C-alpha cells in the first residue's frame, strides 16, 4: 500500500465480536495526517464498529490500536479525545437545548468554565476552515448541517488531530454534502487525519484520498482512490453474491396477492416513502434491500396497515388494507415486526402468545364468552412443536425464552393460519445460525403453500438466499429491481444500494 | 414485609398522639366489626370506592391513566339530582332513571378528555385532573343557582330527594342500602370480562398497542371505551351517594371518593376481587378510625395517613418487582447493547 507519511492513528489485526456475531475480523486501517480515508461497506460490514474502535468507544477483542506508531489502549472516548481523536456520531451527540458554546464546555475539564473564551476558541477554529457557525443558539434550532459542522468545529477547537465522521452525509441534501466534503478537504490540508465512514460512493470519489472497503467484517480492499471508479468500489462492497441460493419453488400463477400502488408514507412530518409501487405474486418471495434507515420500518408498518399512508393503497387479495390493521389481519396478512418484543408479549405464556389470534373465536371459548384455556394450551403446544420453540413448555412465560425462540414463536403464530401475505422485517436479525435457518425455511415453506412474502432486510445475503426478486430502496424510492433467477449484475446492484442510481433527489 | 413496615409507622404515630396502641387498635376493630351498625357503615363506605375502582380498572389495565373519577362522580350526582327532582315518576323507575342520569353525567364528563386523548393525543392525566376542579365549581354554581333548595338555608344544597328515589335499606337500624348489590353485580361483570378475549385485548393495548390494533382494538376505541366506562361507574357512584346516604345533594358529595377509588384500584392490583377487598379494607379503616377517635385521643385522620402509607408500600413493592424481573421488559434494558447488535448484524 502506498505510503506518503507514517500513519497518525492505525489499527492492526483488530477483531470485534458482539455476542455470537463477528462484526470485524482481522482488519487493519491507517489514518494519515493530511489525508481523508473513506471507510466504506454495506450495512453491518463493520465500518462503524471500526470507527468506534479507533475512537475508544468499543475495545477490540484482539488486535492493537497504534497512535504515532506506539500501541495504545483507548479505555473510553475521553482517553481517545485526550490524545486528539474526535468522533462525530451518525446521530449527532450534542444536547439540543444547549448552545454550541455550552455543549463545548460540557466536554471540558477543570473548575472554571469561561463562556467568552470558549466562544472565541470556537470562532477561531471555525475561521480556520472558513466556516460561519452559530455559537449561541440552542443546537436544536439549527439545521442538521449546521449542527454537524458545529460538532466538527468543537472537535477542532478541542485540538483534535484525527477526525472520525460516522455517516455524516446520511441526513444531508446534495448541496450540504458538497460543502461538507469541501470542509473535509480543507481540514486535511491543515494537517488533520480524517476518517469518513460512508456507504455513498460519490463521496468516496470526490473527497477521499484512500479507501478501506469492508465486507461482512473483513477487509476486502485498502488503497488509493485514484485509479478506481465508482463501479469497481460498488463491486468490492457487495462482492459476488451469486451463490447459496435455496431451492425455491416455481411461481405457478400470475395471481397478485399483494398490490402496492403509489404509496406515500410520512412519519412525524417527515416524508419517508415517496410513491412506491410493486406487486407480489402467489408463491413469490420479494426481498426489499437498501441501507437501513427510517424508511424500512415505515414501509413495513404501512404494508401491515399499522401506519396510515398519506396516499396510495395496499391491497391484500384485492382488499385495500392501508391504515387498517385489523382488516389487514382478517384479509390474511401476517406481520413479523423488526423488534420482536413488539410482537411477543413477554408477560403471557408461550401458549397464549402462539394462539393469540384465535383467542375469543367460537372454537376457543366457553359459553361463547369466556376464554377456553385448555384449547389455547392445545393450539399453543401444537404451534410450539411445529416451529421447534424450545423449551417446548406452553405454560412458560414468553419473556423468558431466548431471542431465537421468541422469534420462532412469533413467526409460528403469524404463519400458522396459511396467510395470504407475509410482511417480515429483519426476520432473522441477531439470531444464531440454526434459528436464522429455521426462520428462513419457514418463510420459504409458507410461500410454497401460496403466500406472497415480502422480506425487508439489511442482510443482502439473506435476501439473495431466499428471494425470487429483489427491490432496492434508496432515496425514498425504489432505485432498482432485480430478478434473482438470473445472474446478478453486481455493479448495478452496488449502484442501486449506494443511492447513485439516476433519480431526482428531493 | 411492606405491611409490617406500615404497621410500625402506624404504631409510632398512635404513640406520638399520646394513646396506647393496643387500646387504639381495639378501638379500630370495635369501630369496624363491633356491631351490625358499624359493619354496615364499613360496607356503605366501601361501596362507592369499589364502584369507582372497578370502573377505572379497564382503563388502567389498557394503559389509559384517567384520574377524573372525582369530577365524574360529582357531575353524576348533580345530573341525577336534576333529573330526579324535575321528572315525576314513582317506584322502581325513579331509581332506574336516577342511576341512568348519573351514568350519563359521568360519561359526559369523561367524553371530552376521551376524545381529546383519542384524536388529538392530549394527555389524559392532565385533562381529567383539571376537569375535576371544574366539576367541583360547577356543582357549587348549580347549588347556588338552578338546583338551589327552596327552603331558606345558608349553606348551598339541593332540595331533598323524594322518598321513592331513595335506595331501600337492607337492614333495619343501619344505613346499609341496596347499592351494595350494585357492587356485587359489577364484581361479577368485571370477573367475567377479565376472562374474555376482550379483556385480554385491552390489557395488550397497554404494552403492545400494535398487536391489539391488529386484533381489532384500535387506539381511539380503547381510549374512548375505557374512559366512558370509568365515567359511567363514577357517575353511578355519585348517584348512589345521594340516593342511598344523604338524600340531598351537598357540595361535599365527592369528598375525595374519586381519588381514593383510583387508589383502591391500584391497591387491588387491577384485579376485581382484589379491588373489592381493598375497598373493604379502606372502608373499614375509615369507620374504624372513627371508633378509635371516640375511645382514644387519636384523630380519625389517621385513616388517611394509613391509606397514604399503604399506597406508598404498594408502589414500592410493584417497583421493586419490576426491577427484579428484567425478562419482562427487554427492549429498554440496554439500548447501547441493542445499538451494537444493530451494527454488528451482518
Q: Can you tell me about this structure?
A:
- The complex is a heterodimer of chains A (506) and B (346).
- Chain A is α/β, with parallel strands linked by helices.
- Chain A is built from 16 helices and 22 strands.
- Helices cover 32% and strands 26% of the residues of chain A.
- The model of chain A is unreliable at 500-506 (pLDDT under 50).
- Chain A folds into three domains: 9-237, P-loop containing nucleotide triphosphate hydrolases (Rossmann fold); 256-344 and 419-497, P-loop containing nucleotide triphosphate hydrolases (Rossmann fold), CATH 3.40.50; 349-400, no CATH class.
- In chain A, strands 6-7-8-3-9-10 form a six-stranded mixed β-sheet, with helices on both faces. Chain A has a six-stranded mixed β-sheet with strand order 16-19-20-13-21-22, with helices on both faces.
- By secondary structure, chain B is an all-alpha fold.
- Chain B has a single domain (35-316), classed as ABC transporter involved in vitamin B12 uptake, BtuC (Orthogonal Bundle), CATH 1.10.3470.
- Chain B is 73% helix and 0% strand.
- The longest helix of chain B is centred in the N-terminal third of the chain and has 29 residues, at 92-120.
| CA-based gyration radius of chain A | 25 Å
Q: Low-confidence spans of chain A: pLDDT under 50, at least 5 residues?
A: 500-506
CATH-defined fold name of chain B: ABC transporter involved in vitamin B12 uptake, BtuC
**Helix-strand topology string of chain B:** HHHHHHHHHHHHHH
Please provide the count of β strands of chain A: 22
The main sheet of chain A comes to: 6 strands, mixed
Q: Which overall shape of chain A is indicated by the principal axes computed on the Cα atoms?
A: elongated
Q: How many helices of chain A does DSSP assign? A: 16
Query: What overall geometry of chain B do the principal axes of the alpha carbons give?
Result: globular
pLDDT averaged residue by residue of chain B: 87
- What proportion of the residues of chain B is helical, as a percent range? over 70%
Spatial order of the strands forming the largest sheet of chain A: 6-7-8-3-9-10
Named at the architecture level, the CATH assignment of the largest domain in chain A is: 3-Layer(aba) Sandwich
Instruction: State the end-to-end distance of chain A.
Output: 39 Å
Q: Report the oligomer.
A: heterodimer
- Determine the structural class of chain A based on helices, strands and strand pairing: alpha/beta
CATH class of the largest domain in chain A: Alpha Beta
Name given to the CATH homologous superfamily of the largest domain in chain A: P-loop containing nucleotide triphosphate hydrolases
